């Protein structure tokens, strides 16, 4: 099968692009011929992926790559105007070339933003894209409920996004896993920068909020670590340094290894590779393993009002103690198998 995937395939890494890369790898492992348009505002690391500069450039490359494809699959969090315009364009062009058209809406702010679209522009864009798409795949129940407001036909599916962890990532000799071998719980801070709300919480947990010895913190910075954080480390002392492990934001293998051990993932909000609202909001997600895949069945979005870093640190510590329930959507088969069946139906 010849498949065109469109979405965020560039670092810095988090659930959206890690799912997209996981999905691509599983398709290629099964022998499908895949092309990729990177819809991120950041350049991709893989030379096979096609980056775009603007909307016109995107359309020209879409027209070239759609030719002869069996499936066109657009992945998005769905709350940028330009992203929604590219979404609608991709679905319409895919149908012109007689390809099956799929949309995956990743979990984040669509459950809020999807209800606030302009009746003139945004809602009509979604209505058009959803009407012509063969399937709209929603990653969680809340996103599904809001997306179904735009339902014109029965083409909506609830299928959780996944991150695939290959065997080589889980090998005991992996440097990150060696550092985490004595840690029972792991919190991952992704794409931290100073100043930001995420940095405030990290500073609270690294300096003043007591962490049990069995908890490790894995940290990736979206920029060079600031002198402010270096000062925080100096204040925390050597005991706190044992909790901290640093990874590069564009190191895919190490990031996957961190996800494999993570109990909680914390990061700024983002869409199509662009970070938003980092001064007052963050995403916090619990992880769940199922075979070689990692899912995020539950999570919270923190929106700051006043001095809340200590409050958030307390909530996160409580989340560490809670176990995830099973995902009912996975009782019969995993997410990849379900999507692959939809491709063939």
What do you see in this structure?
By secondary structure, this protein is an alpha/beta fold. The protein has 2 domains: 2-160 and 330-344, Rossmann fold (3-Layer(aba) Sandwich); 175-326, Rossmann fold. Helices cover 37% and strands 25% of the residues. It has 13 helices and 16 strands. It has helices at 15-29, 55-66, 81-96, 110-113, 122-132, 141-147, 175-179, 197-208, 227-236, 238-241, 252-261, 309-321, 335-344; strands spanning 2-7, 33-38, 50-51, 71-76, 100-105, 135-138, 156-158, 163-164, 185-192, 215-221, 244-247, 264-267, 269-271, 274-276, 281-290, 293-303. It has a 7-stranded parallel sheet with strand order 3-2-1-4-5-6-7, with helices on both faces. It has a 7-stranded mixed sheet with strand order 8-16-15-12-9-10-11, with helices on both faces. Strand 13 and strand 14 (274-276) form a beta hairpin. Helix 2 runs parallel beside helix 3, helix 3 (81-96) packs parallel to helix 5 (122-132) and helix 8 runs parallel beside helix 9. It is globular and about 60 Å long. The model has no long low-confidence stretch (mean pLDDT 88).
Would you summarize the structure shown here?
The chain is an alpha/beta fold.
Sequence of strands across the biggest β-sheet: 3-2-1-4-5-6-7
CATH class of the largest domain: Alpha Beta
Fraction of residues in β-strands: 15-25%
Order of helices and strands: EHEEHEHEHHEHEEHEHEHHEHEEEEEHH
Largest sheet: 7 strands, parallel
By DSSP (H or I, 4+ residues per run), the number of helices equals: 13
What's the pLDDT, averaged over the residues?
A: 88
Query: Can you tell me the CATH architecture of the largest domain?
Result: 3-Layer(aba) Sandwich
| Strand segment tally | 16
Number of domains: 2
Distance N to C terminus: 13 Å
CATH superfamily of the largest domain: Glycogen Phosphorylase B
- Per the CATH scheme, the topology name of the largest domain is Rossmann fold
Overall 3D form: globular
Q: Percent helix among the residues?
A: 25-40%
Question: Given the helix and strand composition, which structural class is it?
Answer: alpha/beta
The low-confidence runs, each spanning 5 or more residues with pLDDT under 50, are none
Calculate Rg over CA atoms: 20 Å
